[in-house]
Q: What sequence folds into this?
């Protein structure tokens, strides 16, 4: 498949996956501007719609200011508003749209996130992506509290041809991580993906466990983990902001992966997160399939989220 076919099929999945957000945002914009001039009241209502789409109050205020500039009392087409909106969204997202680069061997990636965020599935999809690039991969079932997570990771290992390091449920996750990174070094494995427990109810325990994991990994590989990815479920909306804050403090998050964008009309939350935290967004997911997780690009997301063509 050539690059343009690949990017075309991804655009189809992306715009389809963001349909709930773009149709709710798009119809709100159309309803507001199609029959009236762009007066102060219209701009204010548009601002409310943007906040409702979880784009965040600061961003919504910025759009209102841009729309109000020199356009008051004039008729404006909804596609013009969408184009302005997409342009402003792209400005916020461009600085955070950064690919995840594997720079050393083994490249150790710690993957964090609350239970139910799609963390283990994301690890499997990342493994598939790295394997497709010809890299050797090891999966580490570090969420030792959930037998289901361990089993899921083993299935992904079989499916992708990645090695799997796992213990029984309830085993010491840090000890497992130590053994895994030691084995990866000895075997020349290129990428190590480490699953972690996602219980936020008991932050103290979670914090201690993650800190211990990082500490023992560093005994084997002083520069590891080389990336700490936080997997966020887009359907939780505003709650994702507090997850970034909490995991940022606990695990020293270096980048984000946002999943389940196809399951929500609140895809704008990614814009609010980017504006507030400025953390790199490496991948986004818009469906269940392996190919539905792809590197994040600011322009494509900005246009798809407001319902414009690529």
A:
């Amino acid at each position: 498949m050539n690059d343009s076919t690949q990017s075309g099929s991804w655009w189809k999945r992306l715009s389809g996956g963001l349909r709930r957000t773009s149709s709710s945002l798009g119809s709100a914009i159309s309803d507001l501007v199609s029959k009236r001039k762009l007066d102060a009241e219209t701009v204010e209502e548009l601002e409310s719609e943007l906040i409702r789409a979880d784009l965040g109050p600061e961003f919504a205020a910025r759009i209102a200011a841009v729309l109000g500039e020199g356009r008051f009392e004039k008729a404006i087409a909804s596609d013009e508003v969408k184009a302005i909106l997409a342009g402003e969204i792209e400005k916020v997202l461009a600085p955070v749209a950064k690919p995840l680069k594997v720079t050393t061997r083994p490249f150790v990636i710690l993957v964090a996130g609350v239970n139910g965020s799609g963390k283990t599935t994301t690890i499997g999809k990342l493994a598939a992506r790295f394997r497709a690039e010809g890299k050797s991969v090891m999966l580490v079932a570090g969420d030792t509290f959930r037998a289901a997570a361990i089993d899921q990771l083993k299935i992904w290992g079989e499916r992708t041809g990645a090695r799997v390091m796992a213990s029984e449920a309830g085993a010491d996750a840090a000890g497992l991580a130590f053994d895994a990174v030691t084995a990866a070094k000895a075997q020349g494995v290129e990428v190590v993906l480490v699953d972690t427990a996602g219980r936020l109810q008991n932050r103290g325990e979670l914090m201690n466990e993650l800190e211990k994991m990082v500490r023992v990994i560093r005994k084997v590989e002083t520069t590891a983990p080389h990336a700490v990815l936080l997997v966020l479920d887009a359907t939780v909306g505003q709650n994702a902001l507090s997850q970034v804050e909490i995991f940022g403090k606990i695990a020293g998050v270096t980048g984000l992966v946002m999943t389940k964008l196809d399951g929500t009309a609140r895809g704008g939350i990614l814009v609010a997160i980017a504006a507030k935290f400025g953390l790199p967004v490496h991948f986004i997911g818009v469906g269940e399939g392996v190919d539905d997780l792809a590197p994040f690009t600011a322009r494509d997301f900005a246009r798809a989220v407001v319902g414009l063509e690529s």
